[in-house]
Amino acid sequence: MSTPIQGLRGTGQFTETFRPRNYRELFTLLEPSGNAPLNALLAMGQSESTNDPAFRNFRDELPERVMTANAANTTGTGSITLTDDAENKFAIAGSIVVNGSTGEVMHVTADTTGTTLAVTRNIGDAVDADAGTTGVQIPDVSVGDKLFIAGFAAQEGADTPTAVSFDAVMVENFCQIFRTSFSVTGTQNSTYLRTGDKQDEARVKALKLHMSDIERAMFFGAKNEDNSTSSQPRRFTGGLFNSLSNKYDISAVNAGVNANATKMTEEEFDLLLTETIFKFGSNSKIAFVGAKVANHLQQFGKDRWQPTQVEGAYGVNLTRYSTFAGDLMVHLHPQFRQIPGMDTAMVIVDFPYLSYRYLEGRDTQLLEGRQNPGADTEVSEYLTECGLELMQDKVHAVIEGWSSRSAT
Predict the structure, then answer these.
(1) Under 8 Å between Cβ of 71 and 88
(2) How does pLDDT run across 307-341, given as a tens digit for each residue?
(3) Mean pLDDT of the chain, nearest integer
(4) Which residues share a beta bridge with 397?
(5) CA angle centred on 179, ends 177 and 182, rounded to 5°
(6) Which of 14, 55, 204, 249 makes the best surface tag, with the fewest CB within 10 Å?
(7) Inter-CA distances, 395 with 118, 167, 201, 258, 386, Å
(8) Burial class (CB in 10 A: 0-12, 13-18, 19+), 312
(9) What is the largest CA-CA distance in the chain?
(10) Quick one: pLDDT at residue 400?
(11) Cα(334)–Cα(117) distance, rounded to whole angstroms?
(12) What DSSP line would sit under 112-177, residue for residue?
């Protein structure tokens, strides 16, 4: 049975009525598990034209509304010092605040504009703790305690509470011009070769190189616009490695992620999936991995369950690793075998928040007859002007430097 993948259209199979619209989708049909699996899946995902080589989107997310105590309060007073953070402003008069460490429930008495939280302490004497005040049971607040907003309690007949708003953040990326040419002399084109038609061979090889270039740019490209020649600027599209904030370098010790450099245990990996990777976005994500990381996951799988192949993934070979947090659909990326350092890497992508953008009329196309007048050769080229759009950042992640597996 086919398994639909979130963010990709259809049931997971190329239907007999599917007709490629350009050379990029044709390449997907010819070699879906080839050297450009990200592009193969993007061809069945969100693709959208743009009428400007610079495309923008707005990212927004609900705030966590969690504050941090910056000083101890052992006297039971209604003034708590907070670490300076924009989240503090959500604690307006009337808000209910709970200390995550002690369970104390507080009621905010004044809008919080800086680092001072004014509250009525221990509402309903919900927490039994002696702070030394006669007849009043108020627990201590310690440095680093997390205080979270847990609702709002208005007085009967009260006026409208203070409005709090938060704005989306605008991000942009560029369409990059990719060009791959190939040529065959008139003599070559007319010569019988045992290996087949030379022009057909060159055409296929050039398309593979062209798609490989786009694939690598979408992983490793750096967003930039070179205006050294202002009338004809050169643009570079930003790839996943240089655009994502969720990056974990396992080659060094990371608090709460891996206790030993270059190593990650099965328990640590599961915790990373639960607390971070699947914290935002879909509960099914695709992970492109290098050979060593694939082996780590395979060993984990042997210890607990049998990894299962995913059928109907548009020809791209995926293996499902199921966890309580979500499903990781793993693909051993062929180019990660070729690129130095990528054998220890994992790039996790949430496809509903990823889109292939191409300049209108400039998606992958074959342009023939590009030779100079009078030249005894036939020159053609593949040309694509495209870029990668990330609708959200925190739904994706990169893990690097995972060179060995710890049993415990």
Answers:
(1) no
(2) 555 654 555 778 888 888 888 889 999 999 999 99
(3) 85
(4) 348
(5) 175
(6) 204
(7) 35, 19, 40, 21, 22
(8) middle
(9) 104
(10) 93
(11) 54
(12) --SSEEEEE-SGGG-S----S-TT-----B-TT-EEEEEEE-PPTTPPPPPP-----EEEEEE-EE
- The CA-atom distances, in angstroms, between 281 and each of 166, 256, 268, 325, 326 are 20, 21, 21, 11, 10
Count Cβ atoms below 10 Å from residue 334 Cβ, excluding itself.
15
The Cα–Cα gap between 359 and 384 comes to: 8
Q: Give the total residue count for the chain.
A: 408
Check residue 27 and report its DSSP letter.
H
- Residues 333-354: pLDDT tens digits? 999 999 999 999 999 999 999 9
Residues 358-376: pLDDT tens digits? Answer: 999 999 999 998 989 988 8
Beta-strand relationship, 176-185 and 404-406: unpaired
Cβ neighbours, 10 Å, residue 216: 17
Check pLDDT > 60 for residue 380: yes
Residue that has been written with the tokens 């925190």 in this structure: 394
Instruction: Please compute the mean of the pLDDT values over residues 380-400 and round it to a whole number.
Output: 94
In angstroms, what CA-CA distances link 197 with 30, 180, 202, 251? Answer: 19, 19, 9, 48
| Unique residue bearing structure tokens 């994500």 | 285
